[in-house]
Structures are given as C-alpha cells and as structure tokens.
Amino acid sequence: MPEISEFDEADRKITGCGSIGVNTSPYRIVENFLDLAHFSFIHVDTLGAVDKTEVVAYRTEHRKDTDEIWALDCTFYQPAASKAASGGQMTRYAYRVMSPFSVMLYKNVNNDPSRNDAICVFIQPLTETQCLAYMPLAIVDDQNQVADIIDFQQSIFLQDRVILENQRPALLPLDPTYELPTRADASSIAYRRWLKSMDMRFGIYEKQAA
User: How crowded is residue 93: how many other Cβ atoms within 10 Å of its Cβ?
Assistant: First the structure.
C-alpha cells in the first residue's frame, strides 16, 4: 500500500466518497483524473473557466525507486478549486500514479500555499469495462462539513462519468498511432508507456488486423 502522509494529519477532514460505478476501463478513469485540458469544458465555473483553457507545459517522471508515475509543476486557473474556495485562483497540482488502478493528486489549499489537499481515486475493476471508483480525501477545510465536501467531490466525478462512459473504445489503446496525443497529454503518454512496459493485457484495446 502506498504511504500518504496527509491522512495522518489530525487537523484534516478525512473521509471517503462512497463508490461510484463507471462503465469503462480502469485506465480511462485514471487518464481522466490526470487530464487538465478537460477542466474548462466539463467542470465549468468550478475547476475550469471557458475563457481560460490553456494547459501550461508541465513535466512527468517515472520514479523507479517506488515505480510510480508523477506529473509535476501543473498549474491551472480554477474559479472554485474546492468547497472552501472563496474565489478564483491559479491552482498548483502534482499527480501521482501509484499503480495501474490507483492515482491521486495534491493541490494547494485555498488561502494556505504551504499545504496541499490530497485526493485519491482507487479503482476496483469488476470486468474490463465495468469499475467501481472510490475517492478517499484528506482535506484542509475548517469551514465546511464533511457532507458538503463529499457533495462537491461527487458532483465533479459524476460530471466526468458522463464523458468516460461515452469514450470509444472503452478499452485503452496503447498503440500511439490510435489516439494522437497533444502537449497537454504528457501525463497520459507517461502512463501509457508505463502500462506498456508492464505488458498489460487486461482492459487494453488491441487493434484488429486488416
């Protein structure tokens, strides 16, 4: 199990958000979580704004000592980055992929640049295209009740579910010529290369021979 120190800090609100069923492959869920570019189109007025769509270049790395994929130096303008947000801000993100089915992010806390909220997504595949997603949180927020924080996070995830369940193919292609990436997809590229290096077959789309 990964070590996530934020869950040991006594002043945080520690909670889960239940489980949410999603009819897609587990890797699609991870990639959606890593994707900054969709914020301005899917999470309008919360995680993104329609007039601020640029994804500033960020970097990725494979930490071989722990065999994790990280995306670092991510920034994005967000009108309401969290339930505790009092206005728009440039939010700093760091993404951490701990296993093919587990991913999390660290994002700077509203009005406290020295700390980060920790938000996880742990995926339980039921089949190659049916999953349960669990979202544990370790949030710095002395203004809102846990139920309100859960409502905020669930509303974000349910907006994503609509998109995820309409992606085709539902299985994830690892052939780089099948879905052409852009600069904003750097974390997805790193994740797919990592999966390919493991020779993953479960939930992976294989292009049919002509």
Answer: 21
Cis peptide before 181 (omega within 30 of 0): no
Tokens of 4: 């996530």
pLDDT 10s digits, 25-68: 999 999 999 999 999 999 999 999 999 999 999 999 999 999 99
Contact by Cβ (8 Å): 119, 137: yes
What span, in angstroms and rounded, lies between the C-alpha atoms of 13 and 150? 11
- Domains of the chain, earliest start first: 10-200 (3.90.380.10)
Q: Quick check: 73 and 55 in contact, CB under 8 A?
A: no
By the 8 A CB rule, do 105 and 33 touch? yes
The average confidence (pLDDT) of the chain is: 92
Task: Report pLDDT for 34.
Answer: 96
| Angstrom distance (rounded) from CA 11 to CA 207 | 50
Write out the two tokens for 81.
């980055």
**Which residues face 59 on adjacent strands?**
72
Going by C-alpha positions, the residue among 77, 31, 30, 27 that lies closest to residue 56 is: 77
Percent of the chain with pLDDT over 90: 80
123: Cβ–Cβ under 8 A, 6 or more apart, which residues? 26, 29, 30, 101, 102, 131, 132, 133, 134
Cα 50 to the center of its chain, rounded Å: 20
